[in-house]
Amino acid sequence: MLENICIFGAAREEISDDYKREAYELGKLIALKNKKIIFGAGSTGLMGAVARGAKEKGAYLIGVVPNHLNNSGLIYDKCDELILTETLRERKRIMDERADAFVALPGGVGTLEELMEIITLKQLKRHDKPIIVLNTNDFYKPLFDQMEVMVNENFLKYEKLFKIADTAGEVMEYLLETT
Length: 179
Description:
With 179 residues, this protein is an alpha/beta fold. Helix content is 42%, strand content 17%.
């Protein structure tokens, strides 16, 4: 049963409101299904939008953040649990272990790194948890195109390692399919 949903996503505030609206909606939808959210504890960007949407509907939020990022204004102050770690690697380990599913929203290199690691771990059969990529505004199209090149050039075996969703509603449909 999918209880804990791990969210990867941008923490930058200077991004388009289109992305924030979809992230906020995802937070609300996850909360309405009584799921817990595990995230990087950010108060800004898409992490903050998911947290605010989820908290508005009463979700339980688990923030996991390295000590060096535990600064006033950066951390969402309504986390039900705040787990402090020494390193980013420890943060990811805790998020990976506690999550029942992963959802990657648009983001920068940190989000991309988290997504690629969790996909790689699934490919290596270290877990079999659902992975869903929220492709708001076709954000991840260049990545998917590159992955297709990898498949065509035999650098990557095609496997159904993750689902692609264009909306928060589709993310929830995929999550509920696997419950």
